[in-house]
């Protein structure tokens, strides 16, 4: 199994990182893709610890929409910051997580759009996949991917909770769709309905640790070992077994991120 999106460089894991990695490996995880905030020194230092503990770890580097406001006076600085961290992080494989989030008011939407598009252009230039965060911004997200990607972008919609229409648009663009612990929540039947129609050759699994722990761990700190719960939920939805879901999602990860 592979956890395709987690935040193990977060300070939440600083004290017991070796134990978290040990539990992930014991659960059968091959590797994880860890998200790094571009320019965050604490996360960069913890990423170094992670590589020592778990050499198969890979990273995505980007400016999240919540941090876009930091660049409101100079959005063109974003690509240079991301590029600089890529150059010092040999294990970096993707640009992310990036996107648009209109649910919270952390960054003005117009600034988010400028920062997002700047990073999409960098992804095209570097030929790197993107990890997409989108919330209450479906059309603007799809428009940006179409216009800036020009058919050259590849990537994944992480922690998908969207509509059938958004899933269809993502698949049409050639993107993968990743599901997190939300898919196990009792009230997430609408999401399960959407995911039943997404073919397994286009699906990834993630924990989004330390957030969104799946049932029966809901309410506790999440960690990569719990990705097995998402695999089991997908297997049930697709009327197959966990081994088949693991086979597909692992192959999909390798195809997208070329680890």
Q: Features of this protein?
A:
259 residues; alpha/beta; TIM Barrel; 9 helices
What is the CATH superfamily? Metal-dependent hydrolases
Looking at CATH, which topology would you report?
A: TIM Barrel
- Return the CATH architecture: Alpha-Beta Barrel
Helix content: 40-55%
Largest sheet: 8 strands, parallel
Rg estimate, integer Å: 17 Å
Structural class: alpha/beta
Mean pLDDT equals 97
Distance linking N and C termini: 14 Å
How would the global form be characterised?
Answer: globular
Strand order of the largest sheet: 1-2-3-4-5-6-7-8
CATH classification, class level = Alpha Beta
Number of domains: 1
Secondary structure tally: strands: 8
% residues in beta strands: 15-25%
List the secondary-structure elements in sequence, H or E.
Answer: EHEHEHEHEHEHEHEHH
> Can you count the helices?
9
Low-pLDDT residue intervals, each spanning 5 or more residues: none
Topology record:
Layout lengths: L1 E5 L10 H10 L4 E7 L3 H13 L4 E5 L14 H11 L4 E10 L7 H18 L3 E6 L2 H12 L5 E3 L6 H9 L3 E4 L9 H8 L6 E3 L21 H11 L4 H16 L2
Parallel strand pairs: 1-2, 2-3, 3-4, 4-5, 5-6, 6-7, 7-8
Summed up, what is this model?
The chain is α/β, with parallel strands linked by helices and 259 residues long. It has nine helices and eight strands. It has helices at 17-26, 41-53, 77-87, 109-126, 138-149, 164-172, 189-196, 227-237, 242-257, and strands spanning 2-6, 31-37, 58-62, 92-101, 130-135, 155-157, 176-179, 203-205.
Task: Write up this protein.
It is built from 9 helices and 8 strands. Helix content is 42%, strand content 17%. An 8-stranded parallel sheet has the order 1-2-3-4-5-6-7-8. Helix 3 (77-87) crosses helix 4 and helix 4 (109-126) packs parallel to helix 5. Strand 4 (92-101), helix 4 (109-126) and strand 5 form a beta-alpha-beta unit. It has one domain: TIM Barrel (Alpha-Beta Barrel), CATH 3.20.20.140. The chain starts with a strand and ends with a helix. It is α/β, with parallel strands linked by helices. The protein is globular. The mean pLDDT is 97.
